[in-house]
Specification:
- The protein is α/β, with parallel strands linked by helices.
- The protein folds into 2 domains: 23-121, Immunoglobulin-like; 138-374, 3-Layer(aba) Sandwich (Rossmann fold).
- 27% of the residues lie in helices and 24% in strands.
- It contains 10 helices and 17 strands.
- The chain has helices spanning 2-19, 186-189, 193-202, 239-255, 272-283, 300-306, 308-311, 314-320, 335-347, 363-374; strands at 37-38, 44-49, 56-60, 67-68, 70-71, 76-80, 87-95, 98-100, 117-121, 138-146, 151-159, 173-177, 210-214, 265-270, 290-294, 323-329, 353-357.
- Helix 3 (193-202) packs parallel to helix 10 (363-374).
- The N and C termini lie far apart (70 Å).
Length: 379
Amino acid sequence: MKKQSLLIIILISITIGCYSQPGGRAGRPMINRSSPEVLDDKSVIFRFFAPEAEDVKLSAEFLQEPLSMIRDTTGLWTIKTDPVKPDIYPYFFLVDGIQVQDPGNVLYFSNERFKRSLVDIPGESPLVHSLKDVPHGSVTYCDYYSDIFKGYRPLVIYTPPEYDKNSEKKYPVFYLISGTTDTEETYFKVGRTNLILDNHLAEGKVEPMIVVMPYGNPSVPGATATNPPAPGDQINEDPIENDLINNIIPYVESNYRTLNDNDNRAIGGFSRGGGQTLRIGFKHPELFSWICSYSSFLGKEDFEKNFRNVYEDPERTNEQMKLLWISVGNEDFLYEQTVEFMDLLKEKNINFESMVTSGGHTWMNMKQFMDKSSQLLFK
């Protein structure tokens, strides 16, 4: 009887909570606290309930600077933006100077440090990363043992929609290394790599492939960065290289149906992961014939000192390397260094494909790089 009475009380409380305003009487519609709310004109309403806060601002990657939000008498802070170009954008609230995720939003930016929220603004027609009515591949979370890091480390692995339908077919593999402070989830949750490939596969634009997304921070075995190398840093020995060769590739090739030669292995990475990609790919042409560097570079001294095998015989390199892809945004803080690296490759007669977009060191650009470069792999 007591349990029944308690259930009735809970139901009454939920009913009152759903149909009353704070401080108001039951029967009035509940205040709309959903956030974010994307309107038909692509403007967005953000809401944050903080009755005790003195100042709340919205910070977003589609804004030049944070915008002040307006508080009503209930303590609900609100702002409506101008129309925003369709894409997926990270954002957060500055609450009395403290960064806060949007508690009304389940989408967040996978990162070692502060977790920003994400707002997905759809286009009038589906964007390349949109969820479409097409066959979808699988995304699997795995742990493998690393004798380099003396512990288990995470992998996220994408398999194409057809993978489970033909138990005999083997596939090429794209090893996609995370960027600075990013995690093994970021290409999936923020970059939507799986959806980009699903959509391209449905249109026949890409080859079916397995994508392996490891955690690229060489500083620690877990998920907290200490002092990871910056893009372009000269690194004498990166444990990620040894981990990839000695642990990740053998794990993948033992557990998945893979084509195990350099013509069927690609390596790519964003930011720090782009630098790791260039070093590993250049050092191991016997493993990788496809190299994709996103928003990263190698310095002239590093390249000339450590990668003679690449530039001393450019004809051999160009014949062996099926694709060297270099991409960057023209507002990226690594733009000038990346352009200098492209000029160095030209000077050394090394063939490459390039893409320079507008914008900065962002995942909005990273999705564009993935869109275009994925269509060149394994062809």
